[in-house]
Amino acid sequence: MLGLDVSQLIEKQNWLKMPKTKKKPEEEKCSIKTKIKGILTFILGTLFGLFVIKGFVSILPGPNTELKISGYISNTPQTTGCIYYGIIFITDDPIEYVYIKIQLPNQVTSYQVGLPFESVLQNSRRFRYQSFACGKDEKGECVIKVPAVRNLGSVQAYSAGNMITIQASKLPRKANIMGMIATNESKSSTIPNPELYTECNYEYIKFGQTVKKSLKAVYSGIRELK
Questions:
Q1: How many alpha carbons fall within 13 Å on the CB side of residue 88?
Q2: Which of 56, 99, 110, 138 is 20 to 30 A from 160 in CA distance terms?
């Protein structure tokens, strides 16, 4: 015969029937706070990491860009009273976007802006060119005559008063933007006539990060064409 201890069986049965211990309200609050703290730490850490990476990438060398502005006057019957401004933007590496705003001393009456045409020479050097005809229309207003062939690409331009704005996106390596602007020296949207002012920037991608930098313009002054 097997000897069974009834008291042990009763204790085991009671142990199996014992309900699970519930967490106290204070313990539940601490658990929730810990989870929230963990989530916030993760979010802040991610944002901080992105900020540090972007800041580091922004100080690395980027595309070499250049914006040149030159003024021209001529005393021929078709150009007297007009001041023309030539602009050239150059980048040696691809950029995502460029924004150029130029305020001129006189009112913009006409302009032509676009991408130049290219020719590859025998020594594999590239020659870029664009031609503009400066003069006056039948009303005597200073104008830039439309070239026979225009290559606008992604370039957009518009003017208001003394201001002209030029924008372009997805410019490839060694891209150029060329333009000519006509102004009337007897007209201005503001009095007294303002000085030449520029507000320019460009964007490019480096290690997957978009970097935005200011673009400095070099103004060579006005010279007379003979």
A1: 14
A2: 138
Half-sphere exposure of 210 (CA within 13 A, CB side): 8
- Identify whether the C-beta of residue 103 lies closer than 8 Å to the C-beta of residue 97: no
Q: How far is CA 43 from its chain centroid?
A: 28
Query: pTM of the predicted model, to two decimals?
Result: 0.73
Residue 94 preceded by cis peptide, ω within 30: no
Question: What phi and psi values does residue 15 have, to the nearest 5 degrees?
Answer: -65, -40
Count Cβ atoms below 10 Å from residue 80 Cβ, excluding itself: 13
Residue entry with tokens 């891209």: 175
Q: What are phi and psi of 24, to 5 degrees?
A: -70, 155
Q: Is 34 helix (H, G, I), strand (E, B) or coil?
A: helix
The CATH architecture assigned to 65-224 reads Sandwich (2.60)
Q: Where are the domains of the chain?
A: 23-59, 65-224
- Rounded to 5, what percent of the chain is helix, strand, coil? 20, 45, 35
- 10-residue stretch averages of pLDDT, the chain, 226 residues long: 48 52 56 63 52 60 92 90 95 95 96 84 73 88 77 86 95 91 93 93 89 93 86
